[in-house]
Design brief:
With about 270 residues, this protein is an alpha/beta fold. It has a single domain (about 5-265), classed as Alpha-Beta Barrel (TIM Barrel), CATH 3.20.20. The chain has helices at about 25-30, 45-55, 80-90, 110-125, 140-150, 165-175, 190-195, 235-245, 250-265; strands spanning about 5-10, 35-40, 60-65, 95-100, 130-135, 155-160, 175-180, 205. The longest helix is centred in the middle third of the chain and has 18 residues, at about 110-125.
């Protein structure tokens, strides 16, 4: 725990198979580390249902998102619209997504990704919930589609932002908050992000692990499993605070307040 302060992990893939054997212990370790609330990511329809069920089983600790990641966009059926609406009607499901565009992997055709992304932005507008967003190597199309829907959106967060200051300014202009992960802890890949991080207004910055992915490269000792988990969020918070030239306490307070505001979470 950071000086008695409490953190919120806005992106944890707790329905991932790697957590199947010890999820209660993972949640306990997070709470003991000061990560008192977590938002469980839904990346496809089945995963979104599982995330919602998990959130319902841990009231006061877990919330979830519901959406279809661009990797799974090829399977976005017409029936998904109503099923996602139903999931998003639940008070513990706080955002639409993870949705967006990924031209790095191209696991789904790009045109199909754009269609599924627009559909989910439309749903978010209809239900009045923010969006939890993914973008990789698709900035121009991503920003253009978001701009089209921006008037009806109640907000959103660029999950796992890794871009440069120019991309950051565009996202801020689109009204987005910015989620920072352990990518910042990588001295090889995180250079652009280290330049951008100080430019994020405190009231728009959130922190996340993206567990079990993106284990911080500078974490000592490194777990033998190489699995990331929410208990490591304080380490990420400390690195983010250092990059921004502010105290960890300041970063913890502002990121927790920003998260509560966007997702409508009650006070800790």
């Amino acid at each position: 725990m950071i000086d008695g302060l409490e953190l919120i992990d806005i992106g944890a893939n707790l329905t991932h198979d790697s957590f199947a054997r010890d999820l209660p212990e993972v949640i306990d370790r997070a709470i003991e580390a000061g990560v008192r609330r977590l938002v469980v990511t839904g990346a496809d329809l089945a995963g979104s249902r599982a995330a919602a069920t998990l959130a319902q089983a841990h009231p006061g600790v877990l919330w979830s998102t519901a959406g279809v990641h661009p990797h799974h966009a090829a399977g976005f059926a017409p029936s998904y619209r109503e099923e996602l609406r139903e999931l998003l009607a639940h008070p513990r499901v706080v955002a639409a997504g993870e949705c967006g565009l990924d031209y790095f992997r191209d696991f789904s055709p790009r045109a199909v990704q754009r269609t599924a992304f627009a559909a989910q932005l439309e749903i978010a507008t209809a239900v009045g919930k923010p969006v939890f967003l993914h973008q990789r190597d698709a900035h121009a199309d991503f920003a253009a589609i978001l701009a089209e829907f921006r008037p009806g959106l109640v907000g959103g967060v660029a999950h796992c932002f890794t871009g440069d200051p120019g991309e950051l300014e565009e996202y801020l202009a689109l009204g987005l908050s910015i989620g920072i992960t352990g990518w910042l802890c990588d001295e090889r890949r995180g250079l652009k992000l280290r330049e951008a991080a100080p430019r994020v207004p405190g009231e728009r910055l959130m922190i996340e692990t993206d567990a079990p992915y993106l284990l911080p490269r500078d974490l000592v000792p490194r777990p033998a499993s190489r699995r990331n988990e929410p208990a490591y969020l304080p380490h990420i918070a400390a690195v983010v605070a250092r990059a921004r030239g502010e105290s960890v306490a300041t970063l913890a307070r502002s990121s927790t307040a920003a998260t509560r505001t966007l997702f409508g979470l009650p006070s800790i």
